Amino acid sequence: MTGQDYEERVRGDVIYAALERLSIFGNALKDIVVKVLAAHGIVSDSNHAYSLNQIESSLSDLFGQPTSHIITEKIAKEIASKARDISTSQENVSFH
Questions:
Q1: CA–CA distance from 24 to each of 4, 46, 47, 70, 76 (Å)?
Q2: What is the DSSP letter of 51?
Q3: 8 CB contacts (<8 Å, ≥6 apart)?
Q4: For residue 30, what pLDDT band results from cuts at 50, 70 and 90?
Q5: DSSP codes joined into one string, 5-49
Q6: Which of 18, 40, 76, 87 is within CB 3.0–4.6 Å of 58 for a Cys-Cys bond?
Q7: Euclidean distance between CA atoms 57 and 47, whole angstroms
Q8: Local structure of 64: helix, strand or coil
Q9: Contact 5, 76 (CB under 8 A)
Q10: Nearest-angstrom CA–CA distance, 10 and 6
Q11: Contact 85, 48 (CB under 8 A)
């Protein structure tokens, strides 16, 4: 991920969905991340979008910069992976 990727805005519901799919987080850590994001005003709906820099900054208060960067990077990779899956499945759709 580049710095520019971290500036792109991602819908709140997409961010929260990525957190749900990440198996590296135990439920306890995932719940803490969700609470921290909510406390920073990052909501899980499709009407709001946030940069990954905002996510990382919100998490760094509790986890520190290195750990928040790792968590944010995992979220970003999960979002990118899901986007690739959707793109691939759309390419494989055939019309009869």
A1: 25, 25, 28, 11, 14
A2: E
A3: 51, 52
A4: confident
A5: HHHSEEEHHHHHHHHHH-TTS-HHHHHHHHHHHHHTT---STT-E
A6: 40
A7: 21
A8: coil
A9: yes
A10: 9
A11: no
Half-sphere exposure (Cβ direction) of 26: Cα atoms closer than 13 Å:
2
Residue 6 · residue 76 · CB < 8 Å: yes
- CA 59, CA 54: separation in Å to the nearest integer? 9
Give the single-character DSSP code of 53: H
What distance lies between CA 34 and its chain's CA centroid?
11
pTM for this prediction: 0.77
3-state SS, residue 91: helix
Tens digit of each residue's pLDDT (9 = 90 or more) over 54-88: 999 999 999 999 999 999 999 999 899 877 665 55
